[in-house]
Amino acid sequence: MYIMRSFIPTTLLALALSPALHAQTVTMSVEEYQERKADGTLPPQFHVTYSTLPVAGVSVNTAKPQGRPKGGGGQVNGDCNCWIQPTGEYTLAMGPNDDNSTNQIPLPFQFNLYGDLYSSCWINNNGNITFTGSVGSYSAGGFPAGTDTVMVAPFWGDVDTRNGLGTVKYLITPTALYVNWDNVGYYSVHGDLRNSFQLIITDGTDPVIGVGKNVSFCYKDMQWTTGDASGGHNGFGGYPATVGANRGNDVDFIQFGRFDHAGSSYDGPFGQPDGISWLSGQNFTFTTAVSTQNIPPIVSSSFLCDTVHVCNGELVDFNVTFLTPEADQVITAGSGSAPTLPGYQETITDNGTTYVINSQFIPTVDDVGFHTITYTATDNGNPALTTTVDIVIEVTYTPVPPPIITGDTIACEGQGVVLTAQDGFETYLWNNMYNGPVILVGPGTYQVYATAGFCRLASNTITVTGAPTPHPVIDGVLFNCGGNPAVLSTTEPYAAYNWSNGSHDPTVSVGTGTYSVSVTNNEGCNGTSPSVNVNSANSPDAMFSSDPTGEVFPGTTVVYTNTTNPNGTTIVSWVWTFDTLGTAMGQTASWTYDMPGIYAVTLTVTTTDGCTDTFVYHQVVIPTDIFQPNVFSPNGDGYNDVLEFSGAEFYPNTSLKVFNRWGQEVFSSSNYKNTWKGTDMPEGTYFYILKLQSGKDYTGQVTLLR
């Protein structure tokens, strides 16, 4: 007996903004909600919790729904038809509504969503089911998403079923939930375009979508993408609709695409938004029973049924499409294989993210029996993963081919590999005594025995070998001054690198920050290093001023003041050195000079990072007077060889003119440095005029002796 659940109209709802919009909760009436949605004052992404009475009762239908007929392979006889039409067995999930949801629905089985097990769910009018609460958000976000979007979404968009615009119905069996959005319209009360799509989730043992798989998306005619309140116009544009599943941890998810326009264009799950017609007729079956960020290619075809019946002489023409549900991956290889069908031919269309194998053949009388076409596709993930799907062709009845084991052949240290046996069999017994089509194993050799009717078929064998997991250690100088980058590498080489700054080179040059590296060894095993902190600090530009400035006389006290540019850092040390006279500390220093001379004053500054810089200033201390010689002897004996005015060297731009006794000028310099030797001048008395820049003159006579 199947009991219908009565529908309770919604009277109040709570509107909760998503975390990115500064979460808050507002309670409002349905009327106020519709007014705000219509005038655009609701945020584009949010969650709605409905205040309704508890579910009166939910029945479990022990009979499987009728559907998935085994059709012919040619253009005339049709295909496998994944769509299961809702009948009297189904329950109306919600009456005509916009953005509504069911109450929490208990499930008689556990659904595995990337490692999280759920035994209840909410069906949301807007093309999805959720597991931690109802969601009324009508503007879809992309996947991955956070904890407020724990969802399986065959088509997350703004569905509107008011005024007779289609229905949302569901059916529960002991191992599966069926939900059909049948001929539904879009907001606000538009029925010019309609969508029909179906979701099936199972416990992974129900053969309706294949043992080992637990999610199926099926699409009939898909015509619209976007409601008016999501920036759409006439059913398109604005926020794209989303197709996929999301665990809610920003890591585990699958996305088949986002759709915002008419037509059948498609450039992969993470390219530009795609055309809605591409979904029409598609069927995706996959598993969310493994928590992983690296998903193997997903297969889609209209012929994914148990057996395709064909007639001899009939043209069999169909496509098998593989998709990569990850943004950074493409399919690198794929093919079909039909060794028992001599006339089998195929052509391949590959754009990286979609890999389409078109199969054609005409069976002959000699081909009577069962034939398996095996399709495989491999992505460039890390590690690369392969998906295999078999389509069984029956010309007449013969035992089905044996199962095929697929999976990785290298088990990294501390991890296992997933081995999957071809689905479609009744029971599975592995040689390690485990049951089921999927097992997690370590190193060893494996085989599975599967039954189909009275047949017990032995699979191929697959050998899994062990490999060490790398433990990379980052090497390099982690601190430097001057803003220069640090060069980081690992202490040993690996086959591949993925640095936290996005580089894939063995060596990277980085600035200040925290860095780690994930590596892959030659066996394909991954490991991540501990993080290191790099400090590429700026150096200061040392500088100081003096008071008084310029040259000073003996006995003068000069005060020096730090004027260093710290370049964004903080100076913590100032060390002054006054030639060989002494030292001082602090931002200012002073020194009294007793003797004439040129003294090197050095300031060394140090920042909080330990970076230093030095500035040197030569303090000139000039004598108060100049010594005037009366004789010099340029005879090369190294003593008194030049006309030297002691002290004049401290005065800049001092000019000298020398005259013989007849008043003739024999030497002139505008900046005399005590260098005149009277070369080629005879012995005798000479007269001079030494003039300082200040205007002061020194005159006299000097005798030149050889």
Tell me what the structure shows.
The protein has 706 residues and is mostly beta strands. Helices cover 1% and strands 44% of the residues. Mean pLDDT is 86; it is low at 1-12, 17-23, 51-57 and 68-79. Strand 41 (517-520) and strand 42 (526-528) form a beta hairpin.
Low-confidence segments: 1-12, 17-23, 51-57, 68-79
Helix content: under 10%
Strand content: 35-45%
What overall form do the CA principal axes indicate? elongated
Which value, in Å, is the CA radius of gyration? 44 Å
Number of strands: 55
Tell me about the largest β-sheet. Answer: 7 strands, antiparallel
Count the DSSP helices: 1
Which structural class best describes the helix and strand composition? mainly beta
Distance between the termini: 139 Å
- Mean pLDDT, nearest integer? 86
Topology:
Layout: E1 12-17, E2 25-29, H1 30-39, E3 46-51, E4 91-92, E5 105-113, E6 116-124, E7 128-130, E8 151-156, E9 159-160, E10 167-173, E11 176-186, E12 190-202, E13 215-222, E14 241-246, E15 253-261, E16 274-275, E17 283-286, E18 298-301, E19 307-309, E20 316-323, E21 331-337, E22 345-350, E23 354-361, E24 370-379, E25 386-394, E26 405-407, E27 410-412, E28 417-421, E29 427-430, E30 438-441, E31 444-446, E32 448-452, E33 455-458, E34 462-467, E35 474-475, E36 479-480, E37 486-490, E38 496-499, E39 508-510, E40 513-515, E41 517-520, E42 526-528, E43 532-536, E44 544-547, E45 556-562, E46 571-578, E47 582-585, E48 588-593, E49 597-607, E50 612-621, E51 631-632, E52 655-659, E53 665-669, E54 684-691, E55 697-704
Parallel strand pairs: 15-16, 19-25, 27-34, 36-43, 51-55
Antiparallel strand pairs: 1-2, 1-3, 4-10, 5-6, 6-7, 7-8, 8-14, 9-11, 10-11, 11-12, 12-13, 13-17, 14-15, 18-20, 20-23, 21-24, 22-23, 24-25, 26-28, 28-30, 29-32, 31-34, 32-33, 35-37, 37-39, 38-41, 40-43, 41-42, 44-45, 45-48, 46-47, 46-49, 49-50, 52-53, 52-54, 54-55
